[in-house]
Design brief:
heterodimer, A: about 230 residues, about 20% helix, elongated, disordered C terminus, B: about 425 residues, mainly alpha, two-stranded antiparallel sheet, about 65% helix, globular
Chain lengths: ~230, ~425
């Protein structure tokens, strides 16, 4: 420390006046600091009505020139599943403590194949704990840095990674010794219209067909669509 | 108020009986200052919240009205619509009386507060004494509501406020006593009128001791008004809300109003006693007085009522006193976001070990100083004696000390800004 610390005087009389002087100086220093903040722009982003694109920059992880902030890499935003590498192991569904993930795996008749006809994550229920991400064997399930999906209807907060049950997904088999490529973070959520410009916050989504689906009738269509990778 | 009303009635050519004039003066004299205090409290709370926002890198309330300007109306209406709860085991008459006493104690003080020129509720010849006495009612109200709430937090708050306000009344009164000695009067208009409009004619720079008395007055005034850093009676992290814990609805609002009105009384009293009040130069508008001489309240009151000069000088004086008061109010508000809260023992040691002995010493020194170096108004400068010249030099030195302290303050602000990590924007409004 090059700067020398001021030493309080020893005598009680001197210390008395030293206290007065130092307290006055300290109050002055403190007031100068608070006053200097009157000349700075507030940190607040007046989201969403004075949205100036800063949040998009946060999401992309770009540095803001003036505040030097970005979302951290471990930021836990919305969950996202890359269905092309999902193994249908359902470990995430079991791990979820509040049961916001619901997966339906069905067998296609005559084809001896399992297909996923439903992979819903209720973001409205999700508490972003990350317990589902840990057991995922292929890394298909992950937290994205996305955090904007406001909607007028709470049903729209269900992210449906199988948009149409008649076009099911075939589970992925993890090849040995090969690193699994994952789609870019957030791209799936944007493709299904959960976030991003395609998002329509003012119309309710059509209800998802409930119950088991019989793929006897649609087996051919299912077989066709399976090869779409 | 009565003098003003008499002038107004004479100007209008009306002749009313004394009882009617008293009645009108009383009603107007009650309603006008109270309405002013209500508006002041609203504007002050809004300003304080905006300042707090800027000092904490936030924006503050800006949604209700343009720039959040009527947020205070919304807050007040919301609080007024809340249910007025009275605890079942409370001492009900005292519980009801407490907030009323607190607000009455403050509002009574407004009677003698000058608004510039001849605008004053009642220019009592014991004005200062009256003010110090009636503001003690606030302690009664706080202690009463703390006791009557039958809650330990409220009781602690009430006791703390009693201990604090009773202690700090001594340095507060001693600092004001210095001014009373310098002015030779307890009347607020006389105190304001015995200073000049120029900063070196103010009592705060009369001598280094008077400057000390001003600082003591400010510190003790903060403590009297239970403002940060002396907000021990309502320390929300220790006592839920102190004496107002059990209150809701309009009774809670009364406590709030009393606190905010107290800030204004403290600021305007500081301005009148130490910062020259609403004194302005006469600007050649008064017959037989030099244009640079001070237009004291007495001079303005002697002008013919409702003449052009009268209104011009009164308005200028009003604006002057308002400007100075808001500067002090801003400093009080800024201190709230600068300083942490004192511990009880620190608060007591500050009062009894520092402020009280210092204020006694300052009073004695000023007693000695006054006959040695009499105060000369600036417009009587030619032909002063040597001792008066020494007094003038020391006054100038005190003013230089103030200017130097302000310069240091500006340098520290510049230092804090130039060492900021963030990019800075000199932009006040968002």
């Amino acid at each position: 420390m090059a700067e020398q610390q001021a030493v309080a005087p020893q005598g009680s009389f001197a210390r008395y006046f030293h206290n007065i002087g130092s307290s006055l100086k300290a109050v002055g220093e403190g007031m100068a600091v608070t006053m200097s903040w009157m000349f700075r722009r507030p940190m607040t982003v007046q989201y969403p009505d004075r949205y100036d694109g800063r949040l998009n920059q946060f999401m992309k992880g770009l540095e803001r020139a003036d505040h030097g902030q970005k979302l951290p890499l471990v930021y836990r935003g919305f969950l996202e599943v890359d269905m092309d590498i999902c193994t249908a192991c359902m470990a995430c569904e079991r791990a979820c403590p509040i049961e916001c993930i619901s997966i339906t795996v069905e067998k296609v008749k005559d084809a001896r194949k399992r297909v996923m006809t439903k992979f819903d994550i209720d973001i409205g229920k999700c508490m972003f704990c990350g317990l589902c991400v840990d057991p995922c064997p292929s890394g298909a399930l992950a937290h994205t840095p996305e955090f904007e999906a406001t909607s007028q209807f709470v049903e729209n907060l269900v992210a449906r990674f199988v948009p149409d049950p008649r076009v099911p997904y075939v589970p992925f088999k993890i090849p040995k010794g090969v690193d699994v490529e994952r789609k870019p973070m957030g791209s799936v959520l944007r493709d299904i219209g959960f976030v991003g410009p395609k998002k329509d916050a003012f119309t309710p989504l059509p209800p998802f067909p409930e119950g088991k689906h019989s793929f006897g009738m649609h087996a051919a269509a299912a077989e066709l669509s399976i090869d779409r990778s | 108020m009565l003098e003003l009303l008499d002038s107004l009635l004479a100007w209008l050519g009306l002749d009313l009986g004394l009882q009617w004039r008293y009645l009108i003066a009383a009603v107007v004299g009650i309603i006008l200052p109270f309405a002013y205090v209500l508006v002041f409290a609203g504007v002050f709370i809004l300003l304080e919240r905006r300042i707090a926002g800027r000092m904490q890198s936030r924006i503050g309330p800006n949604r209700v009205g343009p720039q959040g300007m009527i947020q205070w109306v919304a807050d007040a209406l919301k609080t007024l619509t809340k249910e007025d709860l009275i605890p079942d085991i409370a001492d009900k008459p005292l519980y009801r009386l407490g907030p009323l006493l607190a607000v009455v104690g403050v509002v009574l003080g407004i009677a003698i507060v000058p608004f510039g020129g001849g605008l004053i509720g009642a220019d009592l010849n014991v004005g200062m004494l009256y003010l110090l006495s009636v503001t003690s009612l606030v302690v009664c109200g706080m202690l009463m509501s703390g006791w009557a709430s039958n809650s330990k937090w409220a009781l602690f708050g009430g006791l703390r406020s009693a201990a604090q306000i009773v202690s700090y009344e001594i340095p507060h009164a001693m600092a004001l006593l210095c001014v009373v000695m310098l002015a030779g009067s307890m009347s607020m208009q006389d105190i304001a009128g015995s200073q000049g409009w120029l900063p070196w004619d103010w009592f705060s720079v009369h001598s280094p001791m008077a400057l000390g008395a001003f600082l003591i007055y400010l510190i003790a005034g903060l403590a009297e008004g239970s403002r940060v850093p002396f907000d021990l009676p309502e320390a929300e992290s220790e006592l839920v809300a102190g004496y107002s814990t059990e209150y809701s609805g309009w009774r809670f609002l009364l406590f709030y109003l009393a606190e905010l009105a107290n800030v204004w009384i403290m600021a305007v009293l500081g301005v009148v006693a130490f910062m020259g009040g609403g004194n302005i130069p006469t600007l050649g508008l008064v017959e037989g007085v030099a244009p640079w001489a001070t237009a004291t309240p007495a001079i303005i009151s002697q002008l013919p009522f409702a003449s052009m000069e009268y209104w011009l000088l009164t308005a200028l004086s009003f604006l002057t006193i308002m400007f100075k008061t808001w500067v002090l109010v801003f400093i009080i508000s800024q201190l709230r976001w600068t300083l942490p809260r004192f511990r009880v023992d620190q608060m007591m040691s500050l009062c009894w070990k520092y402020l009280t002995p210092l204020s006694f010493g300052i009073m004695l020194l000023i007693m000695v100083w006054m006959p040695l170096f009499p105060m000369v108004p600036t417009d009587q400068l030619p032909g002063i004696a040597s001792r008066e010249a020494i007094g003038l030099l020391l006054r100038g030195a005190t003013l230089l000390l103030c200017v130097g302290a302000f310069w240091w303050y500006l340098k520290r602000i510049a230092f804090a800004i130039s060492n900021a990590r963030d990019k800075l924007y000199v932009k006040f409004a968002i």
